[in-house]
Amino acid sequence: RRAAGTAEPPLPRSAAQRGPDSPGGASPFPRQRQRRRPRSAQGPGGRGRRGGRMGPDMEPLFQAWSYFRRRKFAQCSALCSRLLERAPGEQLGYLFWSLKGICLFCFVLFQAAWSLKTRALTEMVYVDEIEVDEEGIAEILLDENAVAQVARPGTSLKVPGTSQGGGPSPAVRPVTQSGRPITGFVRPSTQSGRPSTMEQAIKTPRTAHTARPITSASGRYPRLGTASMLTSPDGPFINMSRLNLAKYAHKPKLAKALFEYIFHHENDIKNALDLAALATEHAQFKDWWWKVQIGKCYYRLGLYREAEKQFKSALKQQDMIDTILYLAKVYLRLDQPVTALNLFKQGLERFPGEVALLCGIARIYEEMNNISSAAEYYKDVLKQDNTHVEAIACIGSNHFYSDQPEIALRFYRRLLQIGVYNCQLFNNLGLCCFYAQQYDMTLTSFERALSLAENEEETADVWYNLGHLAVGIGDLNLAYQCFKLTLVNNNDHAEAYNNLAVLEMQKGHVEQARALLQTASSLAPHMYEPHFNFALLSEKIGDLQRSYTAAQKAEEAFPGHVDTQQLLKQLREHFTML
């Protein structure tokens, strides 16, 4: 008798069904008509279906893995959920009938489905930790990790040098709040500079889309529990409060998938750190991967010195490029760019020609306002990878601001050839064509940029550049309308307020010009043009005190501006005579 609750073994086939060469004689059971099961798409002995389509009889776990390989993570997660909810007999079908086989196979299947769903949910919200470097207001103004309050010139990102490498001045190339020139490629660390006061940090420079978050945890990273609520309406997939981390730490394969789920999906850094510490202890501190994960947790918690120790220990065990990049992020957050540069150069000795290391050196030089050295390393990047978008864009931007629009046009056309097709590229192409005197392509490029604009901020920038084009050809009425359209799309565009004020001054509307310049100065205190124009206008109408105050602000924003220095000299002589 078979045990109760066990699967019934299949009946043996009759001799007629086995074929002429099959061993065995006639069956004692009566001949029964059985349905033939269709072959699976990639079953044993079968050729598979034509076209590579997955049939309805494919093994569900294999189908979920296929979804995962094709980055269809939502379908993979849903299929794994159905697998985890099914009864053991439904999971096995007709393959096994022994009790021991059922228990073993169910455990392995459940474990595989659980691990696969964990990885799928992680990939849905995964963000590369190397590229994300966004500092919040709390990290900047409440930072106690500074090595020196007054750093030497050229050794700090907070106070970058002025044109160390012979780069263009702020009169030619726009700068951020911290005084660094605007780069040719938008990265999280170049969205806005390091503000020096709480007022500048809280104030939104442009719009709410580019505002600095209060902390880095409230910026790009998902808030605690938000991702799990979105992916599982009935509740989180894993209940963190009931999780036995010590049990999973003894299973290395499951522990790694669980750590990435907790770190990226749940954003629960504390539990992720506890799991990584237990797993490292179980591995007898010989697994470099867990040390890197502990360093990532310390970095997210703001414990940069502890993160530095973990990354250094991991590098001693296994020399990896990602670990070098993580350690360089720690040094940059500690405001030690020279140490990060030395680390990258040491990495290049072990990994010669590595694009990520060359690009990291170029970024640091660019943030330190050493434009010529940054351009040299970006050229080295292109020698290794001639389709590197960031290097092409930065070199093109450098040539444009160095009064070489024809060469910049070649680089931007190269971006167009390799498949980049967006509003920013056509906007830059239009400016290069205008300054290279190729007027037939200028308006066409700007029209294409307007059609490809995805939000109002991009539309405002295109209209602002069209206003510059109108000023260049002498059509001031068209320029006035373009700047007005810029403010319609983006009411916080400080450059448009400044240029509108200049046009109002030419028309003789003094009060409107003063109001526009005051608005531009409050929106962008790091720009010297609104301060200088306001000082010049106030000096003409006899308001010398306001003129002197505004001129001092302009000199602070751009110490090398000759016109500001001459205006201050005249005002001081006038005050001396009084």
Automatic annotation (TrEMBL):
Record region (Disordered): 1-57, 157-209
Indicate whether Oxidoreductase appears among the record's keywords: no
Feature: compositional bias, Polar residues: 188-199
InterPro entries documented for this protein? BBS8, TPR-like_helical_dom_sf, TPR_rpt
What processes does the entry annotate via GO biological process terms? non-motile cilium assembly
Gene Ontology CC entries for this record: BBSome; ciliary basal body; non-motile cilium
Please give the start and end residues of each transmembrane region.
Answer: 92-114
The UniProt entry annotates TPR repeats at 423-456, 494-527
The record's section on Pfam families has:
TPR_16, TPR_19
Specify whether Membrane is a keyword of the entry.
yes
Q: Which SMART domains does this entry report, sorted A to Z?
A: TPR
Kindly state which keywords UniProt assigns to this record, in alphabetical order: Membrane, TPR repeat, Transmembrane, Transmembrane helix
Q: Which domain of life is it from?
A: Eukaryota
Q: Which Gene3D superfamilies match?
A: Tetratricopeptide repeat domain (1.25.40.10)
Name of the protein described by the UniProt record? TTC8 protein
Gene name linked to the record: Ttc8
